[in-house]
Design goal:
This protein is of the alpha/beta class. The chain has helices spanning about 5, 20-30, 50-60, 65-70, 70-75, 85, 110, 125-135, 145-155, 165-170, 185-190, 190-205, 210-220, 220-225, 260-275, and strands at about 5-10, 15, 40, 95-100, 115-120, 180-185. Bound molecules: adenosine-3'-5'-diphosphate.
Length: about 290
């Protein structure tokens, strides 16, 4: 299939037609954000599904029923997707949503609201590898070609939701003050309990130590992989071919080292450094 059949061009961003439409993007622009709305914002493959697992129990006193009975896309819906209109009016406040939108493409009402954002960043090398495998298994995306070819597209921003660097800079430079919390995928892997504690404080919520332990245990990679409401096994094989790759694939930091040649690493590092130059944004993986 051709690129134009697979993607819509939304303000210069490619967005997959399978889950987005002109109407859903119009609705996004007119969406009325409530002051108690909570958005987990990510560049794709940075931990979106993980946040869809984490937020419901943190917001409802540790009850895991929602995450055990409702698919991730309906329990914490994507703000910009076609399904949003069927769900957002029905979920109780405070509403938790996810979004892949860069900062400037959030709905107008977001900017003057008090809605909070948790922005998750992941090492772009692992984002690239995760995305490469996802493109191989998801039939509604373009075929990635070789990893080197896919890297070219990724660095040029010819991938869904544009350049990683633009996305990260847009949110890291936002003027949201205490309305935004920055976490990394790597911190979540290292100390999930600690990150959940920070999220609870940010949201002004509390959980007992026992309830928090249960949420942490439920949200481990191993346990999410067997949760049919979260592992995308409900999606037909002709859309996501799990024989090629699982959606919840490896769930580790540093898998790029198993994929990158020294040449690819040098090219990728230089390109990202160039784009981030002068931004004052530093990540632990910059030193690796
Ligand atoms: P890998 O492909 O590297 O395994 P998103 O949900 O934003 O599309 O991101 C998907 C990535 O997050 C996948 O990475 C997936 O395995 C990983 N992921 C999801 N839940 C996770 C968890 N509980 N622990 C670690 N990684 C997780």
């Amino acid at each position: 299939m051709e690129i134009k059949d697979l993607f819509l061009n939304y303000h210069g961003l490619l967005v997959p037609r399978i889950s987005h439409s002109e109407e859903s993007l119009n609705r996004l622009e007119k969406f009325t954000v409530k002051d108690d709305d909570i958005f987990a914002v990510t560049y794709p493959k940075s931990g979106t599904t993980w946040m869809q697992e984490i937020l419901p129990p943190l917001l409802n006193g540790g009850d895991l029923t929602t995450v055990q009975t409702i698919p991730n896309w309906d329990r914490v819906p994507w703000l910009e997707e076609t399904r949003a209109c069927f769900i957002l009016d029905k979920i109780p406040s405070p509403r938790a949503m996810v979004s892949h939108m860069p900062y400037h493409l959030m709905p107008q009402t977001f900017f003057n609201s008090k809605a909070k954002v948790i922005y998750v960043t992941r090492n772009p090398k692992d984002v690239l590898v995760s995305s490469f495998h996802f493109h191989n298994m998801a039939t509604f995306l373009d075929k990635p070609g070789t990893l080197e070819e896919f890297t070219g597209k990724f660095l040029a921003g010819n991938v869904i939701f544009g350049k990683w660097t633009d996305h990260v800079k847009s949110w890291r430079n936002s003027d949201l003050g205490d309305r935004i919390l920055y976490v990394t995928y790597e911190e979540m892997l290292q100390d999930l309990r600690g990150v959940l504690g920070r999220i609870l404080t940010f949201l002004g919520r509390q959980l007992s130590a026992e309830a928090l332990d249960c949420v942490v245990d439920h949200c481990t990679f191993k346990n999410m992989k067997t949760n049919t409401m979260s592992n995308y096994s409900l999606v037909p094989q002709n859309l996501m071919d799990s024989k090629k790759s699982s959606f919840l694939r490896k769930g580790i930091a540093g898998d790029w080292k198993n994929h990158f040649s020294p040449e690819l690493d040098a090219k990728f590092t230089a390109a990202i450094q160039e784009e981030m130059k002068g931004s004052n944004i530093k990540f632990p993986w910059d030193e690796e």
